[in-house]
């Protein structure tokens, strides 16, 4: 059954996220081919040094570690995830795939940042037997500055 | 760091990643995405796949990393977009091939393709924008 159009504009959040050093390094270890964590862990084999090597990062123009841009997936996904599992929308999660993703990166995210993400359903569209659910998110840091805008699109097979 | 004047239309870059059996679990731990479709092969099969599938955002991270490696600084990546067109499964080898499509002042536009070991596209319309200006 297609998602009811009355949910267009429905808002989710704010969701808070405190960025941790180990969390960023675990993310880089994972996406860089290593193993995250403290037990049986291993470093990434391919990564940008300023996102993992604290000494190299201190000597960089950023003067400290920065999260890789794709770390946005960890802190900005919540409005989208919440919408996908919102009982009012009634989406069957087994019939849902992540269809499209766009990010605009405005400012680097660093360990110690306190982020707040809000989101809203920005598109609900039926195309054939597919239903498109789009959520647009905005994440601000502790200084009130916008760091990431995201447009997350799920496709549901009806 | 790579100088702004060293970016040129037609530059190419490549990035290759293999999906080992634990990668979806590691990515779940690192990202917080524990959707059982990425963890439990039974759930993956119930959804119509051969087993678990990799989180799309893990593939997307590799796309991002490929662009960052070319741009030279994580903060230079300003925009990234892609459509997910095919599930990525354990054992897949994903090859990202990027090309610098435009340079306008300090802004560069990159186009990237991503294919699996069968040569099938797993992403479509992958484009990135970077700002390589100094300071």
Précis, in short:
The complex is a heterodimer of chains A (158) and B (135). Chain A has helices at residues 21-31, 54-58, 72-75, 78-84; strands at 11-18, 96-105, 114-127, 130-140, 146-157.
- How many distinct helices of chain B? 3
| Number of DSSP strand runs of chain A | 5
What is the CA-CA span between the terminal residues of chain A? 6 Å
Task: Tell me the series of helices and strands of chain B, N- to C-terminal.
Answer: EHHHEEEE
- Largest interface, and how many residues on either side? A-B, 41 and 41 residues
Mean pLDDT of chain B: 96
Helical amount of chain B: 10-25%
CATH architecture of the largest domain in chain A: Roll
Per CATH, the architecture of chain B is Roll
Mean pLDDT across every amino acid position of chain A: 96
**What name does the CATH topology of chain B carry?**
Thiol Ester Dehydrase, Chain A
Radius of gyration of chain B: 16 Å
The third-level CATH topology of the largest domain in chain A is Thiol Ester Dehydrase, Chain A
Tell me the series of helices and strands of chain A, N- to C-terminal: EHHHHEEEE
What is the structural class of chain B? alpha+beta
Low-confidence stretches of chain A: none
How many individual helices of chain A? 4
Number of domains of chain B: 1
Envelope shape of chain B: elongated
Mind telling me the CATH class of the largest domain in chain A?
Answer: Alpha Beta
Explained architecture:
The complex is a heterodimer of chains A (158) and B (135). Chain A has helices at residues 21-31, 54-58, 72-75, 78-84, and strands at 11-18, 96-105, 114-127, 130-140, 146-157. With 158 residues, chain A is an alpha+beta fold. A 5-stranded antiparallel β-sheet of chain A has the order 1-3-4-5-2. In chain A, β4 and β5 form a beta hairpin. Chain B is α+β, with helices and mostly antiparallel strands and 135 residues long. Chain B has a 5-stranded antiparallel β-sheet with strand order 1-3-4-5-2, with helices on one face. The interface between A and B is large, with 41 and 41 residues. β2 (96-105) of chain A pairs antiparallel with β2 (77-84) of chain B.
């Amino acid at each position: 059954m297609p998602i009811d159009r009355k949910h267009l504009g429905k808002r989710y959040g704010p969701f808070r996220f405190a960025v941790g050093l180990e969390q960023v390094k675990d993310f880089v270890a994972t996406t860089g081919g290593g193993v995250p964590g403290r037990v049986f862990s291993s470093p990434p084999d391919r990564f940008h040094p300023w996102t993992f090597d604290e000494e190299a990062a201190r000597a960089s123009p950023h003067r400290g570690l920065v999260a890789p841009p794709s770390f946005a997936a960890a802190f900005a996904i919540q409005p989208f995830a919440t919408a996908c599992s919102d009982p009012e929308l009634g989406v069957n999660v087994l019939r849902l795939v992540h269809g499209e993703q766009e990010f605009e990166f405005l400012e680097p995210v660093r360990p110690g940042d306190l982020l707040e993400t809000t989101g809203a359903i920005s598109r609900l569209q039926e195309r054939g037997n597919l239903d498109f659910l789009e959520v647009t998110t905005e994440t601000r840091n502790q200084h009130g500055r916008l760091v990431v805008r995201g447009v997350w699109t799920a496709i549901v097979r009806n | 760091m790579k100088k702004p004047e060293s970016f040129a239309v037609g530059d190419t870059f490549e990035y290759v990643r293999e999906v080992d059996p634990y990668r979806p679990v590691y990515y779940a731990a690192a990202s917080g995405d524990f959707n059982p479709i990425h963890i439990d092969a039974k759930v993956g099969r119930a959804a119509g796949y051969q087993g678990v599938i990799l989180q799309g955002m893990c593939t997307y991270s590799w796309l991002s990393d490929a662009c960052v490696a070319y741009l030279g600084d994580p903060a230079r990546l300003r925009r990234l977009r892609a459509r997910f067109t095919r599930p990525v499964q354990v054992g897949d080898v994903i090859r990202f091939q990027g090309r610098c499509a435009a340079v306008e002042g300090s802004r560069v536009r990159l186009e990237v393709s991503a294919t699996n070991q069968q040569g099938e596209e797993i992403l479509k319309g992958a484009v990135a924008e970077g700002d390589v200006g100094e300071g």
